[in-house]
Write a structure and sequence with these properties.
By secondary structure, the chain is an alpha+beta fold. It is 36% helix and 18% strand. The strands form four sheets. It has a four-stranded antiparallel β-sheet with strand order 8-9-10-11. The protein has a three-stranded antiparallel β-sheet with strand order 1-2-3, with no helix packed on it.
């Protein structure tokens, strides 16, 4: 019997007289790479970066976190639902886990803790301002801190959702699939002209966000698409539109060969997003993050 191990899946090739060779896959929970969706946030992991980040944070990061970052250095999650009686409504959707980098990723916890006036014993590894997930070093626990959930409302105390990061990872679940069989199969799809009008009028967040999502996946002129993105991002009355534009633009970049990218327009969009201030003239962390991701791809 041959054995191969790659990331989170152990693959056994077993010979069978009837069926020849049969492949059996068994998930290796100790790896945990299966929780991610798509590419890693940062391409490379190094001990030099890890040591520098730990020195700046003033902590030793959990071994389970470090081993996970060696496999997949941060990124968006496929297993993104955390069920817990200690979070609102019993569950929270977690968009990503921050990786190890000298400028972005978990190192941003230093600025976030200061900006949001959180206890300096917290190291934030996920969240967008509506909530944070953090390692809790307030009691000097070495490199096995508990994971806490911190709500935006400062009056609510941080709540422990897992004793360790490894136990936190084991709690993550995939979102339940929605059965659309009984629903109308005809979706609202927009023509280019309709989408342009929706952006120009700026009256419906749902129509505009859906349009960017639709054309991110359909074939269309990317210069036209990014031009509309630059117009849409100015509609600050829709608080989450800039986030939707950032996500959709990254999808569009994945679907279009890089030689067809309008580089100057993408640079302009990334610059606007990196310096983006929302409706209340505050920096929006997620928009800035997506702007940096767009810039990194160029």
């Amino acid at each position: 019997m041959d054995f191969k191990q790659k990331a989170a899946v152990s693959i056994f090739y077993v010979k069978s007289r009837k069926n020849g060779i049969v492949k059996i896959q068994i998930r290796n929970d100790k790896m945990f790479e299966y929780i991610f969706d798509g590419e890693a946030e940062f391409d490379d992991f190094s001990l030099e970066k890890l040591n520098k980040v730990e020195k700046d944070l003033g902590v030793k990061l959990p071994d389970s976190y470090i081993e996970l970052m060696k496999l997949h250095n941060g990124g968006d999650l496929a297993y993104r639902i955390l069920h817990s009686g200690r979070v609102p409504d019993g569950e929270v959707e977690i968009e990503n886990i921050r990786g190890i980098d000298l400028e972005d990723g978990i190192i941003e916890s230093i600025e976030l803790v200061e900006e949001w006036e959180l206890d300096k014993g917290f190291v934030i590894f996920s969240g967008d301002g509506n909530y944070w997930l953090a390692f809790d070093y307030r009691n000097d626990v070495g490199n096995e801190p508990a994971v806490v959930y911190i709500e935006e409302d400062a009056e609510n105390k941080p709540k422990q959702v897992a004793k360790t990061f490894e136990l936190f990872l084991k709690k993550l679940k995939e979102p339940e699939e929605v059965d659309f069989e009984d629903e109308d199969e005809d979706e609202d799809l927009y023509t280019k002209e309709e989408f342009e009008k929706n952006v120009s009028k700026g009256k419906s967040f749902i129509k505009i966000a859906d349009g960017f999502y639709q054309f991110a996946r359909e074939e269309c002129d990317m210069e036209w698409y990014i031009t509309l993105a630059l117009k849409g991002i100015k509609l600050k009355k829709f608080e989450r539109l800039a986030v939707s534009i950032g996500k959709s633009t990254l999808v569009k970049m994945d679907n279009v060969p890089s030689e067809k990218w309008p580089i100057n327009l993408l640079l302009e969009l990334s610059e606007v997003m990196i310096n983006y201030k929302g409706y209340e003239d505050d920096f929006d962390y997620l928009v800035v993050k997506y702007g940096k991701k767009i810039r990194k791809k160029l």
